[in-house]
Amino acid sequence: MSFLRSAVGLLARAKLLEGSSTVQTRRHIKRWVSPTLRELAHRQKKLGPQKPERRAGFVEWNQRSELFAFGKRLGESFELSELQRAFTEKSFAEREEDRRRQLGIEESDLQMPHNSDLVEKGQHIGRAYVEAFLQHQLPKVPNEGLQAIASFLLSTETLAHVSSHLGTKDLIQSTEYPPSAESLAKSLHAVIGALASSSGIERAFLFVRDFICTQLNQKDLLDVWTPQEPIQLLEKICQERKLGEVEPRLLGDCGKNTVLAAYQVGIYANRQLLGKGFGEDVKTATETAALDALQSIFDTRDNRRPFDFAIQLEPKTVRLG
Asked: What region holds the RNase III domain (predicted)?
């Protein structure tokens, strides 16, 4: 019996030690938290969706510090006065001048610089470098295709996408918020112009290469530029480059006179197969084969050599005139 008593005592002590070694975590949430959160959610739902507020309207906002940080994030050296002007739109400057005039400020202090000239300068630099970059990277593509690809890179949608991801939305001083796609694109052009004025034209070229030309990465060029009349264009290219007369041939078909008919057409020139394509009829298959042949001639297939985004073009090869 004494042995049993001692065993029970040891087990009791072991349970006490085990209970003291484990820490029990409990959530202590006050009873007023749940009804308060429900009431706040109800009020927010009653108010409906609210317009986004300008980040510059917050107390801790410092425009000068934000501009300085913007340049450091990009690894560029800007003159703060030029960068400030790059983010100031003409409509915002005119509104500020009217407000100052109503406050009775002297005419000499009414003038507020805006980014109109920087936008034009940035547009000129951006287009010149993009065209030079495409001519260097796609030497076999005709001028029509180069212009279509350049238009894609310099379109408002592409520039606004780049500008928004660089963090310009809260830096732009405009009469509307959030800024429109056109305002985002213009601000990016103005930043290019400000960089050229601050650090030189070569740094502006590298900026265009790193942030605008790189939008072609993993991009199907056939989606960017699709010839409207591929057969006529192929005949013109073969005649100019002396590849021979274009001759489409039917390579195979299946399911004739059914809704699931399929045809395979090959494009030949001087007994050489240039491309082949499929379609639900002979005409569609011929156009697809012509597109495939153009991709082969222009070297724009998916398996082509990737773009070299580390290349540094000579400034003299970029036509700014």
From this structure: 81-221
